[in-house]
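Quick one: structure for this chain?
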Amino acid sequence: MGHEVKGAVRVGKQRYTGKILLETNEIIFRGSDYRSRIAFSDLHDVKAVNGELHITTSDGLKIYEIGAASEKWREKITHPKSRLEKLGVKAGTRVRLLGDLESQFLRELKDSKAEILEASDAEMTFLAIDSKVSLSRVAKYAKIMRGAQALWMGVPEREERNHGNRRDCRRKEVWFERHESRRIFSDTHRVEICSAG
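Got it. Here's what it folds into:
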């Protein structure tokens, strides 16, 4: 989930007020007369100066007036958490893998020293969803989840548009306490979480 503050952005001699959002891979400004979206990959320089966030790209300098959050945002932008950190995976975390997960994600898991299991008592289960058939497996695995166990699903963006996976998950697993969507899995996949209550 992103962070949001009310503030202003200065672009050249112009100053605009509105909402400033810090997302996983970009910073967004939404005002009544000005909007912008800057991907972290396009940043040349980021500085926190007296309550302001100075961001330089190939288009020039933008100054975000965000107050006390400026240093924290600079740190998040310049030293973003890894994908596994965002998912809560660390050394020793017991995980189970189901389906055809991307090779880069598997390498990251191996490097993290997470404990990969085939048993159902894993703390986290990662399920790759690429069709209605694989979506139907959610209920099967959810029934054996206990306590704080979580089922993470890698859902292609196109699959939600075509099949409405979030609605299906809610309908089939109504006892889940939490259902979140996070676009942190890859450029093409979003992560859905269903947690046992």
